[in-house]
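Incident log entry.

Two folding requests arrived from the same account within the same minute. Monitoring flagged them as a possible duplicate submission, but the sequences differ. Recording both here for audit purposes.

Request one:
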Amino acid sequence: MRNCCHGNENHHCQNRHGWNGAGRGRRRELFDKKYEEYLKSTSIPEFESEEDYETWLTTTEEGKNHCNHIKRIQEEVNREIPWGGRRMNAGRKSCGNKIPFNRRIDESKLEILKDYAQKHNITETEALEIAIEKLLD
């Protein structure tokens, strides 16, 4: 069996952590770059099977640290390159009563919501819901 850190798309760690070929753009490139940097700074044993690898990850402190490091790399990548995209059903013609979020709220108030959402690592909608709940209290 190949070393866990062989660096191809069928790589155990990447598969285990959800990086099995999806998202082949800038996000995947950045993940691969950060992951290669991590590999240069660590040594990972050879594994005879997937089961040996899974056992190493779940039972040894070194394996758990490795797993956590991969998750940290993914979080860094997600912070540096956000997923983007439309909010569900926002401004779609099929939903006549739906107006894009940023057209319903004054721009200065929207900035306050965005800042609050970023500080607390939540969505803008969740920030708005919190603001409404505080008004109702």
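Request two (distinct sequence, not a duplicate):
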Amino acid sequence: METKGDKIRALIVDDELHARENLKFLIEESSPEIDVVGTADGVPTAERIFHELKPDLVFLDIRMPSGAEGFDLLEKLEGESFQVVFVTAFKDYAIRAFERRALHYVLKPIDETDLRESVERIMVARDNSENLNSQENLKNLKEEIEYNKEPERITIHHAKGIRIIEISDLDYLESSGNCTILHFKDGDQYLDTRTLKVYEALLPDYFNRTHRSYMVNLKEVREILHGDDQSVILKSGKSIPVSRERKKELIEAIKGLA
């Protein structure tokens, strides 16, 4: 494995030649910290090259022909030390799955800025000696993507590591500049550097954006108040404002939980 300051040795795995060449070009253009040492068009080739070259990082397409080959490769490499960047054309729930587990990913078609951001996250993870590729983490990711399972947890990076949060423990979320304050049912709070907009994509459907500055756990809503100061009252007693343009969506979302 590389030491801090060394180039990160990378392997690209994708069944499409053009996709492999394009990603290699973008890495060379935007990320001098990365040295692409090999490419592979499927699991057998990737496994062989991995054991020959021992890369530190694998850019892995998880929608190769069988639909599961990317995960098959990870299972074969169990016990090896490396980081993964998932390359995917998935959107919506799959993106939420990656974000919840603090896993690295880029979307097809690949944007150079997004790729650069992913590489920077890899550098932070490397410097913090984080290992996000645990078999349990990857197994849960595979199940969530294949079956679109409702998540139970999210993960949050902080200066000393990663905090795991039970989604059901959240009461509401509050925007604070470019950050988000997570408010828990027990009264605890936690400041995360991700925006409220990111949390809209992360959290399941029973969380609703009632206002530009707030999201609430609909399972914790006790009542909705109408009038000039329309709001929702949570079981905790907290009053959360509801903007006029979001009220209809809120009511429909609550009815959908019944």
